[in-house]
Every structure is written in structure tokens, then in C-alpha cells.
Specification:
Blueprint: E1 2-5, E2 8-10, E3 13-15, E4 20-21, E5 25-26, E6 31-33, E7 36-39, E8 44-47, H1 55-64, E9 71-74, H2 79-82, H3 85-91, E10 96-99, H4 101-111, E11 118-120, E12 126-128, E13 133-138, E14 148-152, E15 157-161, H5 179-193, H6 197-210, E16 214-217, H7 225-238, E17 246-252, H8 257-270, E18 275-280, H9 286-293, E19 298-306, E20 309-310, H10 312-323, E21 330-337, H11 345-348, E22 357-358, E23 362-365, H12 370-385
Parallel strand pairs: 8-9, 9-10, 10-11, 15-16, 17-18, 17-19, 19-21, 21-22, 21-23
Antiparallel strand pairs: 1-2, 2-7, 3-6, 4-5, 7-8, 12-13, 13-14, 14-15, 19-20
Bound molecules: MU-OXO-diiron.
Length: 387
């Protein structure tokens, strides 16, 4: 355990070897699961717990520090933070879990936590630990319907759970506000928070209103007074309405006909002053792709035909782009086929939540011909007209 300030401790753990988050986004440096201990004159509360994978290490840490838990605050029921609640309730049978109504429902369904072990809080409700008060602020949808923040009123520090999280293990406790941390927080935001960007805007305003002295998220480092503005400014940028003059060109090509078209469009766009993020979908890191989606204006899929439809990698990418709900303004499909099929409908069908404007697709039969390249020039012009 590490002391953050008088009576407030970090009892999280680093998972530097974890390779993938949510079985989806690669983790270049692993992640952390943050748990905090807040001591009052009379009572002690844990703020979020631990991923059960680290059960022994976590319980050994609490035991070694003679921790007695009166309250467990569960800001969010996802198991990377709630997994140890049943074990803690066995060790501290008089402890009570404080959580939002939705969180109580989730803890019951996911971990079998009994109703009489939970106290469901109302927005703004307070709990005294003796000279130190916890205030619960309901913040649904960053990123589950159950999420809430907990504020230590007297110290004005704010536990935001996943909001402001980062997959960053380069330092032990405090945010170094480095470009590397910004990138880790961006990778985190792109997968976890971007689908809920409108709620992020709402709660970013709420955090600014609270003006905390420290932000203590459930992944990554703690933000002190300087760090608070660092992470707030990043969120303000990512959640803004503006997009860059940038297009993602994600492609997969079996016999290089599609590659010829992709390379031609890349040059056509670059010569028109458009930034192109070219991504080979056979090798793409989903986290990189998600980060590029934060401020890209459009996406163009380059795909070969496989049997009677687009390559499955392009459909997967379209599905991912759809569920992450980025600010995409437009999309198009280019590619080549041999003998038949529909190269576009299965990709377009993925866009049910995110609805970019469809620009004219360019589909070549076999090797792309001069008229196909002319159409790619026209597509480049159409893209430029969108800015
Ligand atoms: Fe880090 Fe939504 O759990």
C-alpha cells in the first residue's frame, strides 16, 4: 500500500504482463487495477476492489497493513474492480457495499452479492467515516449504466473509476503527464469511453464544476493538481465535435489489385492535402485503429472479394468502427472482384449506430483500369469536398 495523503492510500496492483484488454485491444504495457483505502476517525472504506486474478496478492497486502474494512464502495460492477467483493465480505462480515442502484443489480447477478450486504445510494448521498465524508455522484454511462464517482468532501479528491483511466504502468503512482501517458489514456478512451462521448462531455463539465485537487481513476496513475488539467484537456479535445482533415484507409488485398487502388487513392488524397492513415487490416492493432477513429473525418475500406462478399477483415473493421461510435462524417468502399458477388452491402450493413454519409464506391473487375483510377480521383475530390 502506498500513502497518497493523510489517511488515503493506494492499494491497487499493476498487471504489466497483460497483453489484451477485453480480448480486443492490445496493451503495449499492460494495465493497472486501482483500489483505494480511505480512513476516517471512526470507519474505513475501500474504494473499488481488485480483479480476482490477483486475489492472493491483494488480500496479503491488506492483511500485511492490518486493514479492517467497514465499507466497500463499488463505483462500477465490472469484475476488474468488483471481483474481490465476495471475498472481502467473507473476511469482513459486517462490511456494507455502497453502490448505485444499477450496480447493486449487477453485483447481485454477476457475483451473487446479497441484497442485505448492499446499501443503494442516491445521487449526492453522503457517508461519514468520522471527520471525513464520502459523497456519491451518480454518473451513468461512463461506461456502464451503473457507474458513479465518489468524492472525499473535505479533501476534495475524486475517485472516477474508469473515467479518465489509462493503460499505463510506467510509473508507480502519480501521473507524469508525458506524451506516453497521453497515448495510453487515448487508447483507453477510444475503446472504453468513445462510444459514450456525449456522457463524457456531461461528466467532464461536472468534474470541472467540482474542481477536484486530485483525480483517482481505476486504471493508470493518479492525477494531482497539475495532472487534473492534463487529463481534462485531453478529454475536452477527444470529445469535441471537431475532426481532422484525415481519412482512415483500411485495406485487405488478396492479389494486389485492391492494393493498387488503395495506393492510388492514398496518393490522390495526399496530393489534395488530406492526411491518410493507411492500415493493413491483416496486421492492424485494434487499439491504434480505435485511436485514429477519435478524430478521423472519414473511413475508406479497401477490400478484395472473398467468395461472394468482402473480405471478413473489412466487415470486422466496419463492425468495430460502428460500435465505437466515432465522429466519422463519411465512408466509401473501394476494391476488386474476380467473378461476382456484392463487395459493398455487407460492409454498409455494419453501420447501424454510426451513420457516416456514403460516398460513391469504386469497384473494379479484376485489374483496375484507367476508368477505375479516374473514379478514384473523383472519390478523392468528393472527400475533399466534405471538409
Ligand atoms: Fe475497468 Fe469498466 O472496468
Amino acid at each position: 500500500m502506498k500513502q497518497i495523503s493523510d489517511g488515503i492510500f493506494f492499494c491497487g496492483l499493476h498487471d504489466k504482463t497483460r497483453k489484451v484488454f477485453d480480448q480486443l485491444v492490445p496493451l503495449p504495457q499492460g494495465t493497472t487495477y486501482n483500489s483505494y483505502l480511505v480512513k476516517g476517525a471512526e470507519k474505513t472504506a475501500l474504494i473499488d476492489t481488485m480483479y480476482i486474478k490477483f486475489a492472493d496478492k491483494y488480500m496479503d497486502m491488506l492483511t500485511a497493513n492490518n486493514v479492517h474494512v467497514d465499507y466497500i464502495v463499488s463505483n462500477h460492477a465490472e469484475p476488474d474492480h468488483s471481483g474481490m467483493i465476495p471475498t472481502l465480505l467473507e473476511k469482513f462480515p459486517n462490511a456494507v457495499v455502497y453502490c448505485s442502484p444499477k450496480c447493486a443489480e449487477n453485483l447481485k447477478n454477476m457475483l451473487g452479492v446479497a441484497d442485505d450486504k448492499m446499501h443503494v445510494v442516491a445521487d449526492g448521498e453522503e457517508l461519514s467515516l468520522g471527520g471525513r465524508t464520502l459523497k456519491f455522484i451518480l454518473t451513468p454511462w461512463v461506461h456502464w449504466p451503473d457507474t458513479m464517482f465518489t468524492q472525499v468532501v473535505e479533501d476534495n479528491i475524486l475517485f472516477t473509476c474508469d473515467f479518465f483511466g489509462a493503460h499505463y504502468t510506467a510509473n508507480e503512482l502519480w501521473a507524469d503527464c508525458s506524451p506516453e501517458l497521453a497515448l495510453s489514456a487515448k487508447r483507453y478512451y477510444a475503446e472504453i469511453m468513445m462510444p459514450f462521448a456525449k456522457f463524457c462531455v456531461k461528466y467532464l463539465a461536472k468534474v470541472k464544476e467540482i474542481s477536484p485537487k486530485m483525480i483517482l481513476p481505476s486504471h493508470g496513475p493518479i492525477y494531482d493538481e497539475n495532472g487534473v488539467s492534463f487529463i481534462e484537456n485531453l478529454y475536452a479535445d477527444w470529445t469535441s465535435d471537431s475532426v481532422a482533415k484525415k481519412v482512415i484507409l483500411g485495406y485487405v488485398s488478396m492479389y494486389d489489385n485492391t492494393t493498387l487502388m488503395v495506393n492510388y487513392l492514398e496518393n490522390a488524397l495526399a496530393s489534395r492535402g488530406v492526411e491518410v492513415v493507411k492500415a493493413d487490416l491483416m496486421e492492424t492493432d485494434e487499439g491504434e485503429l480505435a485511436m485514429e477513429l477519435i478524430d478521423s473525418a472519414g473511413i475508406v475500406f479497401g477490400t478484395s472479394m472473398v467468395l461472394t462478399g468482402p473480405h471478413p477483415k473489412s466487415i470486422y473493421t466496419a463492425y468495430l468502427a460502428n460500435i465505437l461510435r466515432p465522429k466519422l462524417k463519411f465512408s466509401a468502399i473501394i476494391g476488386s472482384f474476380g467473378w461476382g458477388g456484392n463487395l459493398t452491402a455487407p460492409i454498409d450493413a455494419m453501420f447501424t449506430l454510426t451513420k457516416p454519409k456514403k460516398l460513391e464506391n469504386v469497384i473494379a473487375k479484376g485489374r483496375p483500369k484507367p476508368e477505375d483510377f479516374q473514379k478514384l480521383d473523383a472519390l478523392a475530390d468528393a472527400i475533399v469536398a466534405e471538409f
